Automatic annotation (TrEMBL), chain A:
Species this chain originates from: Cyclopterus lumpus (Lumpsucker)
Keywords: Acetylation, Heme, Iron, Metal-binding, Oxygen transport, Transport
Family designation: Belongs to the globin family.
GO molecular function term, any single one: iron ion binding
InterPro entries: Globin, Globin-like_sf, Globin/Proto, Hemoglobin_a-typ, Hemoglobin_oxygen_transport, Hemoglobin_pi
A single Gene Ontology CC term: hemoglobin complex
Superkingdom, taxonomy of origin: Eukaryota
Listed PROSITE patterns: GLOBIN
The protein's name in its UniProt record: Globin domain-containing protein
Domain Globin, chain residue ranges per copy: 3-144
Origin organism lineage: Eukaryota, Metazoa, Chordata, Craniata, Vertebrata
A Pfam match: Globin
GO terms under biological process: hydrogen peroxide catabolic process
From TrEMBL, chain B:
GO cellular component: blood microparticle; haptoglobin-hemoglobin complex; hemoglobin complex
GO biological process: hydrogen peroxide catabolic process
Entry's family note: Belongs to the globin family.
GO terms for MF: haptoglobin binding; heme binding; metal ion binding; organic acid binding; oxygen binding; oxygen carrier activity; peroxidase activity
Protein name per the record: Globin domain-containing protein
Organism: Cyclopterus lumpus
Keyword set, alphabetical order: Heme, Iron, Metal-binding, Oxygen transport, Transport
Length: 144, 147
């Protein structure tokens, strides 16, 4: 898809400044939600004993994912280069089908809308949607 | 045909009972036109869609958003009969409006996000699952008469 414009990057940094304090909660809810709304994603976590929304494994994973998103925000000018190590991890070790990046992105956006209804305007929404799509593309870079 | 649990039926009826259709409909459609600008191709007669502010203030967009929500309500009232309920609308979108059915998913996602922002914490994972299942079933019914 399209690359991020200067306006997109500004919008992403602006909303990130507002939400980053709650990023662990956002991540936890997004992962929990994904496992509930899209049960096929549970196939990647068969090694977890507890897949319920309150499980420590879900929280830990939500925190991990959002730390990655935070990293991506700081490297927004070069996502492919900046996320190289994460791309290799996803390509060679995790081998998550890239369709799932779209699913998790959608869940992150839903959680942002729930937690920040006033700030998650349509303009911020389109910038975040583009940004998460760009992150997904960077993560899939090393797949083949 | 889609199978609904009692819990899903109750959840969906409850969501729609609490929704302000005249606010949510316009918000969802205008969000779709802003977040996925290529969808504007179907609204060339609506006037000024030049930027987000113009879209959100456009009375034709608002009117159409309300129509969409009221048409969704028909689905809520006929959850076991969605194919027949939406047969005419499906033909309209295919033969007259020539809308690519992939677009139905885009407006569904925007509607999910608007409803989430209105319901807040009450929009749990289970509620989201039921809502998205309903929207997916409507989208499928709307795509049925395409050839």
């Amino acid at each position: 898809m399209t690359s991020l414009t200067a306006k997109d990057k500004e919008a992403v940094k602006a909303i990130w400044a507002i939400v980053s304090g709650k990023k662990d909660d956002i991540g936890t809810d997004a992962v929990a939600r994904m496992l509930t709304v899209y049960p096929q994603t549970r196939t990647y976590f068969s090694h977890w004993k507890d897949l319920s929304p309150t499980s420590p494994a879900v929280r830990k994973h939500g925190v991990t994912v959002m730390a990655g998103v935070a990293d991506a925000v700081s490297k927004i000018d070069d996502l492919k280069g900046g996320l190289l190590a994460l791309s290799e991890l996803h390509a060679f070790t995790l081998r998550v089908d890239p369709a799932n990046f779209k699913i998790l992105s959608h869940c992150i956006l839903v959680v942002m809308a729930i937690m920040f209804p006033k700030e998650f305007t349509p303009e911020i929404h389109v910038a975040m949607d583009k940004f998460l799509a760009a992150v997904a593309l960077a993560l899939a870079e090393k797949y083949r | 045909m889609v199978e609904w649990t009692e819990c899903e039926r109750a959840t969906i009826k409850d969501i729609f009972a609490k929704l302000d259709y005249d606010s949510v409909g316009p918000a969802a459609l205008s969000r779709c036109l802003i977040v996925y600008p290529w969808t504007q191709r179907y609204f060339s007669k609506f006037g000024n869609l030049y930027n987000a502010a113009a879209i959100m203030g456009n009375p034709n967009v608002a009117k159409h958003g309300k129509i969409i929500l009221h048409d969704l309500e028909r689905g809520v009232k006929n959850m076991d009969n969605l194919k027949e309920t939406y047969a005419d609308l499906s033909v309209l979108h295919s033969e007259t409006l020539h809308v690519d059915p992939d677009n139905f998913k885009l407006i569904s996602d925007c509607l999910t996000i608007v409803v989430a922002s209105r319901m807040g914490k009450a929009f749990t994972g289970e509620v989201q699952a039921a809502f998205q299942k309903f929207l997916a079933a409507v989208v499928s019914a709307l795509g049925r008469q395409y050839h």
